[in-house]
Amino acid sequence: MFVHWGLYALPARHEWVMNYEETTVEEYSKYFQRFDPDLYDPREWARAARDAGMKYVVLTTKHHDGFCLWDSALTDYKATNTPAGRDLITPYVEALRAEGLKVGFYHSLIDWHHPDFTIDGVHPQRNATDVESLNSGRDMARYRDYLHGQVRELLSNYGTVDYLFFDFSYANSKIAEFWGGKGPDDWDSGKLLAMVRELQPGIVVNDRLGIPGDVTTPEQYQPTEPMMLDGEPVTWEACQTLNGSWGYHRDNNNYKSVDLLIRMLVDGVSNGGNLLLNVGPTGRGNIDPRALESLAGIGEWMALHSRSIYGAGPAPFTAPADARYTQRGNRLYVHVFAWPFEYLHLPGLAGKVEYAQLLNDASEVFLQEVDPGQEAFNTIPGGQPPGTLTVKLPIQRPDVAVPVLELYLKEASRD
């Protein structure tokens, strides 16, 4: 689970509200003065993530607006100086560990509040008439020291941190509006990554420092096949929102349905990836009930179908239209996105499956290998292409978001 939470929960108009509305630091300070998340209970966040079947949580320790959720010694722009009056990272870490979840931190490389972060095409003051004057005296070397110092704090003061999600590099971006973009040289990414690995040797780091990381992070789209680098598959996870906004957005009701979210998860796993699904808690610190409903729906499906997801990955077989395969050992999982009338035809699997069942209730389904030369006549269907395995399904679709067939492959058919 991804969690975007900070001062931007108060305007409730997207986590980039400072950028979109070209707000100055002084104007934005009204949210700092009123940040008082009295309903913040990270134990509830952790339970919601666990019940949804998630294994780790990634929280925005600092987003692009520069506001810090912990008691950083390097700035006054932090939760301890708001009405919240306390470090909000410690209880988050403790809650995750109590629920058996891995600890993830998000940390922005960008900082629109810091006086040394130079104004560029992503900065809220990009259209100011006196940009050159505003940039006079700003020193990215000083900001770089600040960035490294804050990462050192986060990785030194909270025990084992399992995942660090940096965001983001945009040097040489083809997006014209991103003039003056910053990248590895601005962050000194090599040195920063070396420090991260020294402080947390077992940590997983994403790919947004502008240099190779451990995991590739496509955002707001689904790869249509396994992601590759120099001909080799890479570890990846798609970062997705429930409604198009990462931070709490009160008036955005464009929520994805539970069955769509599950299909996104399945589609990712079928292509060797994972899903990092975001929630944006409110300014009072609780998860929006609409988001909780989505998480609960995913959890209901995962309770019956998790073994088609955990430890599973791409299969070497070609799935039929409106279905996705995942495989774990000798078990091939057929996720049926569109329930057919009675028969599901699986190309290339004839003679390779010894038993089949619906995963939700372990009820047997029957397998057939129809003679390819069989002619259709009245109630007799015509033959399928050679090598096709036909599964006879119940007319009534299982009452689950995405039905799954579990096929037990014969020993010689696993690869």
Account of the 3D structure:
This protein is of the alpha/beta class and 415 residues long. The chain folds into 2 domains: 2-305, TIM Barrel (Alpha-Beta Barrel), CATH 3.20.20; 323-413, Immunoglobulin-like, CATH 2.60.40.1180. Helix content is 24%, strand content 18%.
Please supply descriptive tags for the structure shown above.
17 strands, single chain, 415 residues, Immunoglobulin-like, alpha/beta, TIM Barrel, five-stranded antiparallel beta sheet, 2 domains, 18% strand
Q: What is the CATH superfamily label of the largest domain?
A: Glycosidases
Sheet/helix structural class: alpha/beta
Q: Kindly state the percentage of residues in helix.
A: 10-25%
**What separation lies between the terminal Cα atoms?**
32 Å
- Along the chain, the helix and strand elements come as EHHHEHEHHEHHEEEEHEHEEEEEEEE
Strand content: 15-25%
If you compute it from the alpha carbons, what radius of gyration comes out, rounded to the nearest whole angstrom?
Answer: 25 Å
Number of domains: 2
**According to CATH, what is the class of the largest domain?**
Alpha Beta
Q: Find the count of extended strands (DSSP E, 2+ residues).
A: 17
CATH topology of the largest domain: TIM Barrel
Instruction: Characterize the largest beta sheet: strand count, sense, and whether it forms a barrel.
Output: 7 strands, parallel
Name the strands of the widest sheet in spatial order: 5-4-3-2-1-9-8
**Uncertain residue segments:** none
Number of H- or I-type helical stretches: 10
- Tell me the overall shape: elongated
- Going by CATH, the architecture of the largest domain would be Alpha-Beta Barrel
